[in-house]
Please model this.
Amino acid sequence: MPKNKSVSIKKIAISTGGGDAPGLNAVIRAAALSAIKRGWEVYGVLDGFHGILSPEEYPSGGFVPLTREKVSGITHLGGTILGTSNRNNPLKYPIARPDGTIEEVDRTDEIVRGFRLHHIDALITVGGDGSLAIASVLSKKGLRLISVPKPLTMISIKQKSPLVLIPPSVSPLKHSTDCIPQPHPMAA
Model:
């Protein structure tokens, strides 16, 4: 993941966070196919950000290649083929201390390092209010990303959000894939 945002994109990742919502697989499929059409490699992050924070728990190392074949025929499936998590927020990740107490720590630097380690140039994150808050922090730490809010999130999100807000008349996916080649702040 380059710090210089003018570097061209070659490899992206897609993650889904929070609870299940209709259309997650449709967003994954459309984003993956659009990226593949641009000649980019596409990977899915398993179980929200858990795949990158605990890669040892997955045979694939927490990432799965998203090829045309992998995303074919998934739009009608419920849930998300990548899995999701609405626990273990990386901004307040619970860690058991030796004395038995739980300490909440910020693990977002580990996420940014993980994307750099895997040479991921940009991230498309699909989620609700919590996922958008995490995405805002990751963006401030230099991760190039686009957030696609879940349909109910678009209703509840506050206008002061530092992330891109997409009017209901515009497809969030179309807007996301249009923005990836030239990431920059945009007015809501």
In short: The chain has a mean pLDDT of 82. Helices lie at 24-37, 50-53, 68-71, 108-117, 129-140, 151-156, 172-179. The longest helix spans residues 24-37.
